[in-house]
Every structure is written in structure tokens, then in C-alpha cells.
Amino acid sequence: MHPTLEELFERDSAALEHLASCAECRARLTRSEELTGALRALPLETPERDLWPSLRRRLSARRTRRIWIGAAAAAAIVLFVSTGLLLHRTPDLPARDAGTPAREGQLQALIQKSQQLETLSQGLARPSPALSGWKAYTISTLEDRIAAVDAQISAEDRKGGPKTELVGLWKQRVQLLGALVETQAPQTEEPVI
Questions:
Q1: In whole angstroms, how far apart are CA 25 and each of 19, 30, 169?
Q2: For residue 77, is pLDDT > 90?
């Protein structure tokens, strides 16, 4: 068995004994020593310019962009949560106000706005290979919340109760659809590098 180059370079008694009897290992050691010498003889090259300052600027810009994206995501979460809380705190109107023409008109306006936003959302909902995980999660969450509100609207319609509850639910649906359209809208970003 032949020793490794490292063992041959150590030149201990076992390596020297093996080198004396093995022409193949002597040739391998000689080639390795010649290559090492040739590499050491090469001049030390330095780049024409230092690339670190431009790289540091790019990394800093990317880090700043990530901070702003994180802040925007946090603001969106706060907006979604606060909108949900505000919608759940809509005061109930007295039952005598439930069937007024003004309430019916408000309900029809909300339904029309909901239909417009839904049409707009469907136009924006093209699958994108560059969709971020966070954006996909946000869209999915909004769609789930809209589905839950739709179920509540159906239940209220079946009950045939006062329009007050329906108006609150349709307001919530319009706000969720608005957030969905805003999330689906294409964002223009600078190229990373």
C-alpha cells in the first residue's frame, strides 16, 4: 500500500524507506514538489479595483428594502386586525330602523360595491410564479375570511331578520375584498442586484 502525499512530505523513517523502494511514489512526490514550487513562484495578483464598497452598498440597500417590506407587512396585519375589530363593533340599530328605505339603499350600494370589487379581484387573480409566500398566505387568509362572511350573510338571509346585521356583514365583505384587491395588485420593485 502506498502512503499519502502528506505522509511522504513528512519524510519519517517509514516514508523514506518506502520512497527508496517505490519509483511511483518518488515520481509523485517530485511532481508535487515541482508544482508547489511553481505555484510559489507565481507573482501575487491583486484586482484592479476594490469591489467591496459597491457590494456593501447593494447589501445595505437590500437590507433597507427588507426592513420596509417587513414594516409594510406588519402595517397590513394591523390594518386587517383593526378592520375586523371595528366591523364587529358596529352598533346595532333599533329594530324599527331595520326596514327603512335608507337602510335598504345602503345594503344595495354595498352589494353593488362588493360585486365590482369581486370582478376586479378575479381580473387580478392570475397565477404568478413570482408570488411570495407571504403574499400567497395573505391572499389565502383574506379569501378564507370572505368565505366565512359569505356563510354568515347566507345565514342572515335565511333568518329574514333585520337588515342591520346584513349591512354590517356586507360592509365587512367590501372591506375584505378591498384588501384582497390591494394585495393582488402588482407591485413594482427595483431589481435586487
A1: 6, 8, 86
A2: no
142 vs 177: CA distance, rounded Å: 8
Which residue matches cell numbers 352589494? Answer: 111
pLDDT digits (tens, 9 = 90+) for 87-115: 555 444 444 444 566 678 888 888 888 88
Quick one: angle between helices 163-184 and 133-159, nearest 10? 160
Q: In the chain, where does DSSP find H-type helix?
A: 5-10, 13-21, 23-41, 52-88, 101-124, 133-159, 163-184
Which one, of 24, 7, 23, lies nearest residue 15 by Cα? 7
Q: Residue holding cell 394591523?
A: 78
Question: Does 8 have pLDDT greater than 60?
Answer: yes
Q: Burial letters for 69-80: b for 16+ Cβ neighbours within 10 Å, e otherwise?
A: eeeeeeeeeeeb
